[in-house]
Amino acid sequence: MKNFLKLFIMILFSVGVVIATLPKKNLYYLLEHHLSNQDIIISNEDISSHPLSFSISNADIIYKDIPAGMLQQLRLNLYPHQISLTLNKFIMNDSIKNILPANIDSLQLRYSILAPSKITIEGKTDFGTIEGDFRLFDQTLSLVLYPVDYLTPNQKNVLKFMQYHQGNEESPRRYTYEYTY
Q1: pLDDT class for 163, splitting at 50, 70, 90?
Q2: DSSP the chain
Q3: Which residue in 70, 66, 67, 76 sits closest to 90, CA to CA?
Q4: Domain tally for the chain?
């Protein structure tokens, strides 16, 4: 048992050293190159890299030569037991507001080695609060949206793709969406 504990600590330490010494900026530029092949361009961004995290601030997002929006901050935290990607304040351009929420206040994706089969999703938008997960083995995305009290007609058009569940005393009203890739 003592040897197993030592081995486990050595593995965690090794993973931590690898994560701390990764060339995060170079990996970001590689990702940016792959996104440009999909007609997604990230420009005017401020990049900062730390041993266990990487962040992008004040970035303009352009999709197929159409300004999509402005990203205030995107932060990637790399810990030996968990990886989290946090998006803070994404403001959509007017041309995309009819399709997606106008503002995304926060969105967090988390992957943990304690639950290796799924990525959890939490967020807060103009539409309401979002919870969900992406199950890796069966390639299924499940989202639950707890809407705000008042939705505009454009927001209601987007929600027609989701299934509505009337609330009761035990659970609030919500919209669900499930998609298998």
Answers
A1: confident
A2: -HHHHHHHHHHHHHHHHHHHHS-HHHHHHHHHHHHHHTTEEEES-EEEEETTEEEEEEEEEEETTEEEEEEEEEEEEE-SSEEEEEEEEEEE-TTTTTTS-SEEEEEEEEEETTEEEEEEEEEEESSEEEEEEEETTTTEEEEEEEE-S---HHHHHHHTTSEEE---SSS--EEEEEEE-
A3: 70
A4: 1
What does the pLDDT look like over 72-125, one tens digit per residue?
A: 999 999 887 888 999 999 888 877 766 666 688 999 999 998 888 999 999 998
Full-model pTM: 0.77
Going by pLDDT thresholds of 50, 70 and 90, the confidence category of residue 135 is: very high
Range of the domain at 45: 2-180
Sign of CA dihedral 54, 59, 64, 65: negative
Q: Nearest 5°: phi and psi at 36?
A: -65, -30
Residue 15 identity: V
Q: How many CA atoms lie within 13 A of 17 on its CB side?
A: 6
